[in-house]
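Re: [ENG-882] Designed sequences occasionally contain unexpected residues at chain ends

Forwarding the minimal case from QA. Structure tokens:
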């Protein structure tokens, strides 16, 4: 990496050459190779650890540490312990089983666990002392935030509106990830109805800056240097980008998912709870449409997520994009200009050049004489 050229206090704190965070993305994209490549290129790589046991979380952090000495982050979902009743599971399976059968799978059955235990994941995260941690789907207690900070971690809370950002501020978070409605995959919303919390990035970021005074990291729809420059102009200290990194070479997702993201148009995504039981933005496909047709049979997250997982994995292995969860943000078409299988490091370098060119152009406009 060349000499650091810090753009914001957040970038300076983590010695980032470019004010970009590669968003944590559960489900395969954010492999240790991706996280380390991004950090080594001068942005902030982020591991999505929500699906992992504490042992797997530790192993992935060890793998990242063997590949980079630079700062990186780890992200978890804040979840309460979940023990669904048998009737909820059986009802969900009546909608899921016909799709399983079409993919050659036997009928599904109730599971012993639907998600890893959040408290044991959190204890492991404290022990691992990673430089940056972030959370979504809820807010930590002030005590948990302090434990992480005492272990040397910088704590980021995800908010989709002002009340959530203030809750994180009250808990002592160091920064807020502002997740706009354009964003790919799960909505972080934990206060109020999801449909009231679809605030676009352009409106959300300055409101969270003004309301909290904390560093704000802008997420949702940012795909190139124009988006990064816009986020900084709104008062954000970095752009958190998911969909842009989703199609990179190091992203360990089925190739057909990458192909569908690269082929998506601006109107191809929908926010639905049909696939996982929690609202998430993805490209419409038969899986989404068939499950959404029977809304009363959708189990809450994480039950529906766990019950549809095996069929989605089978579809991925078969290269069948019709039965995958094709999470993607609304900005996907803006990635089409980049080469197929671009490395994460090359993407970071391109973004660095792009946003500086945009900023210079705006600076030049501002210096034109007034008429
Ligand atoms: C495939 C995918 C998986 C995601 N998984 C997570 C996750 O595990 N944790 C999280 O906090 N955010 C997750 N996100 C949301 C990102 O943090 C971020 O809000 C979003 O990607 C920004 O919008 P963009 O996709 O338009 O760049 C995910 C996004 C995508 C596209």
């Amino acid at each position: 990496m060349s000499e650091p050229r810090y753009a914001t206090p957040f970038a300076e704190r983590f010695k980032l050459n470019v004010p970009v965070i590669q968003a944590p993305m559960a489900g395969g994209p954010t492999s240790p190779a991706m996280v380390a490549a991004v950090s080594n290129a001068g942005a902030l790589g982020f591991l999505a650890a929500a699906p992992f046991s504490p042992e797997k979380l530790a192993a992935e952090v060890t793998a990242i540490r063997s590949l980079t000495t630079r700062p990186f982050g780890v992200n978890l979902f804040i979840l309460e312990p979940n023990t669904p009743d048998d009737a909820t599971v059986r009802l969900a399976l009546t909608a899921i089983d016909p799709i399983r059968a079409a993919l050659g799978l036997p009928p599904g059955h109730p599971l012993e666990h639907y998600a890893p235990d959040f408290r044991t994941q959190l204890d492991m995260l404290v022990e691992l002392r990673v430089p940056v941690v972030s959370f979504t789907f809820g807010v930590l207690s002030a005590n948990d935030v302090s434990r992480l900070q005492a272990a040397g971690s910088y704590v980021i809370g995800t908010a989709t509106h002002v009340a959530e950002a203030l809750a994180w501020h009250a808990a002592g978070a160091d920064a807020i990830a502002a997740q706009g409605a354009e964003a790919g995959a799960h909505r972080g919303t934990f206060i109020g109805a999801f449909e009231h919390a679809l605030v676009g990035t352009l409106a959300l970021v300055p409101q969270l800056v003004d309301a909290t005074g904390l560093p704000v990291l802008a997420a949702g729809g940012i795909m190139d240097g124009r988006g990064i420059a816009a986020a900084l102009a709104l008062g954000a200290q970095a752009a958190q980008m998911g969909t842009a990194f989703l199609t990179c070479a190091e992203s360990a997702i089925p190739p057909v998912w990458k192909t569908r993201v690269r082929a998506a148009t601006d109107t191809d995504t929908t926010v639905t709870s049909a696939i996982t039981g929690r609202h998430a933005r993805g490209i419409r496909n038969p899986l989404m449409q068939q499950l959404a047709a029977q809304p009363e049979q959708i189990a809450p997250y994480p039950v529906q997520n766990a019950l549809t997982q095996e069929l989605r994995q089978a579809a991925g292995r078969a290269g069948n994009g019709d039965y995958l969860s094709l999470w993607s943000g609304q900005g996907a078409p803006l990635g089409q200009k980049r080469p197929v299988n671009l490395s994460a490091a090359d993407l970071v370098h391109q973004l660095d050049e792009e946003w500086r060119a945009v900023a210079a152009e705006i600076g030049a406009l501002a210096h034109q004489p007034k008429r």
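QA comment: On inspection the terminal residues look reasonable. The CA atoms of residues 186 and 280 lie 4 Å apart. Proposing we downgrade this to a documentation issue.
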